[in-house]
């Protein structure tokens, strides 16, 4: 057989411009984290790799404020964690309740529908807040095995209150699943003290690592549900029975080959978690709040209106600006990118037409 | 609420020893590819990122020897490509035929079973070769929509012949899915000329990039099947309708947000594909064959027996050695690692008890 020649584009060098990543994510990656990700790799099943994974687990436990043994990093982005959470804790036909007030709830509802769950949604306009009363009413009505809420609704710029919801979920025998992709490290979350059963985040937001890994943690209640199911999760790759062994969480003496983890991605995730541990969570939260406050004031002084009016509900990591009438947001964002190398982004899903901007460069 | 302190392990620096990665994968990553992966990142939806993804597509088309438009890299390892191929081309209840002669067939059978396919397997001992006559008989009997075969059966060290099977699959209205994770770049494959309908590989084997991305390509026949299905694929993350748009393959003017791709992983994948394009496929195949021949002779001169006796069926990238009687393979591998920093590995799944070794360091 005859070999077709290569396209000439592959003989050109890789070109990567510098950009200030002020969109909701990914964020600019600090040199220390880039250097960790650029280290020569070792095998995914070497003892030294297990040590690095053990460290990552400790780093996630700190960042999540949890003692959960069942804590790992997914080999994938936040969507991999989303699918992992739903695929493992829900069986086809079971009831799932999803709070939709932006794009992330829409995504989880779609994921749960595809795997055959009986999905109920509570809908508010982007940035809307669900009261605990509303949530309890829906829990009582739909008796879901899982309730999903986004803590950091980046498409609206909202930090949704979480207090008390975990208790309501326990009362109604529901697992409480919280998405902190956009908020972890920027806005306080206490997985154990807030009775959150399943929590996940992404590497590429306030953690400042490249995209491609996603910390996730399951508490004992969640483990009871997911390890006592009648059917196998629909994905072999995201099956926590296997991932738990790969991360050394199942008490077995040997970790068996399941899939090949992103070795370089784990190096950079460990480094970013180490930076958070050195800095301290409270300082990270304070710093985000301080810089966000400075940004908010500057924007308001320019006459711009922020989309989330109540300061206490604003996400410190992602600020959303209402587009002034008569302006085209696409044109503005293109202008800023072209003249200042700065990324700001439009809304996503239900919030298309707003813009997001990060409050800080964190290195 | 009170903040728990961090574990002291996170205050220690990252430690990564140097290892010669002579196992079946991942491979040592050349400095050029590490440097590409360590570049400062840009946004996953920036025009410059689309250019890099376009280049990757061209690089995969060359490596696969295909003109298929529907060519992308998965944001995940080879298992992500495996699930993507099965989830998209098969609907629940449809018949799937899997050739099992090592671990990879077992994995695909499990993946297809979980998503509700009607799975039939053809089984041989590790390293066994299926004749085209046997395959046609099974195609006629089970009338599968998909037939899976591993080209590079790394758990046995086998390069399975592929010629003629694509034609049989067309005759029986079956899609031909081939796994080249362990073989691509080392052992010749011609996707278009061999009538392979779906082909995938991993980044971390002969391509020498870090694990975490997985090239995959679908031809027009495969697209006809997967884009005319009655049900949605069970995974939103692996849905080719969305991935196709993300990779600019669906003819739509805009690429919409689906998930956040592993930006650094795409940088390093592009660099590894560029090295292959510069070197040329024929030279890469020749080089692997030459070095493997040298290794085989050296091993046989030492009195060791290779597991695959027919030289023409040996995988040039992964050589398997039959364990001499009276020796403990685990102890031998530990000795080699301890004294020479060299990774060799045991078998996987059905071939546990054999050992694998790569023939070369490719930089």
Characterise this structure:
Two copies of one chain form a homodimer. Chain A has 363 residues and is of the alpha/beta class. Chain A is 36% helix and 15% strand. Chain A has eleven helices and 15 strands. Chain A has helices at residues 31-37, 47-64, 78-89, 103-114, 132-142, 165-171, 220-226, 240-246, 263-279, 281-301, 329-340; strands spanning 20-21, 70-74, 95-100, 118-123, 146-150, 152-153, 158-159, 175-179, 198-200, 214-218, 305-306, 318-322, 342-343, 345-346, 355-358. In chain A, the strands form four sheets. Chain A has a seven-stranded mixed beta sheet with strand order 2-10-9-8-5-3-4, sandwiched between helices. Chain A has a four-stranded antiparallel beta sheet with strand order 11-12-15-14, with helices on one face. In chain A, strands 1-13 form a two-stranded parallel sheet. In chain A, α1 runs antiparallel to α9 and α2 (47-64) packs across α9. The first copy, chain A, starts with 19 loop residues before the first strand and ends in a 5-residue tail after the last strand. The interface between A and B is large, with 97 and 97 residues.
* Range of helix content of chain A: 25-40%
Largest sheet descriptor of chain A: 7 strands, mixed
Alpha plus pi helix count of chain A: 11
Of all chain pairs, the largest interface belongs to:
A-B, 97 and 97 residues
Radius of gyration of chain A: 21 Å
**Order of strands in the sheet with most strands of chain A:** 2-10-9-8-5-3-4
Stretches with pLDDT under 50, minimum 5 residues of chain A: 359-363
Q: What is the number of E strands of chain A?
A: 15
What is the overall pLDDT average of chain A? 94
Which class of secondary structure composition applies to the elements of chain A? Answer: alpha/beta
Oligomer: homodimer
- The dominant shape of chain A is globular
